[in-house]
Amino acid sequence: MFNIFKKKKEEEFVAPLTGEVLDLTEVPDQVFANKVVGDGVAIKPTKGELVAPVAGVVKQIFATKHAVGIETENNLEVLIHIGVNTVELDGAGFSQVVVEGDKVQPGDKLIEFDLDYIEENAKSSITPVLITNMDAIEELNRKEHTEVAAGEDKILEIKIK
């Protein structure tokens, strides 16, 4: 009754890639499209540079450099998976910029990748941007079907429980 002054925690995510924001159902992989791993958005990139969508700590960079995990100050677990079936490229076409344990701010470069190589050699370049611990989320608002610039345009607004 008296906690009317208690503010809800919120996080805003900027686009980690330049390209078009899509609904997760448009990812050509059922694990992502059916939100098995988490919820969020997908981006069809037009430039081969992945940046941090939110402030946090790099918790994991896959050995194949195709995906990165970030934990925010509010304990949100973020997974960005560049393309579909890109693990099969075994790191070819990817260049890691950060290492596990690095603190990042929105817009900090994480991974560079050869977009043409990925589009030619992987199933898709569409990149899921996911919150993997959805049990911590009260509300998730997304921007979809619009062009965004990496590190600049907001793509997600999240209210945390």
Summarize the structure.
Helix content is 7%, strand content 41%. It is mainly β and 161 residues long.
What's the arrangement of secondary structure elements?
Blueprint: E1 9-14, E2 19-22, H1 30-33, E3 39-45, E4 49-51, E5 56-61, E6 67-71, E7 77-81, E8 94-96, E9 103-104, E10 109-113, H2 115-121, E11 127-131, E12 137-142, E13 147-148, E14 154-160
Antiparallel strand pairs: 1-14, 2-3, 2-13, 3-11, 4-10, 5-6, 5-9, 6-7, 7-11, 8-10, 12-14
Would you give an account of this structure?
- The mean pLDDT is 94.
- The strands form 3 sheets. Strands 9-5-6-7-11-3-2-13 form an 8-stranded antiparallel sheet, with no helix packed on it.
- It has helices spanning 30-33, 115-121, and strands at residues 9-14, 19-22, 39-45, 49-51, 56-61, 67-71, 77-81, 94-96, 103-104, 109-113, 127-131, 137-142, 147-148, 154-160.
- The protein starts with 8 loop residues before the first strand and ends with a strand.
- The chain contains 2 helices and 14 strands, in the order ββαββββββββαββββ.
- The radius of gyration is 15 Å and the shape is globular.
- The protein has 161 residues and is mainly beta.
- It has one domain: Glucose Permease (Domain IIA) (Distorted Sandwich), CATH 2.70.70.10.
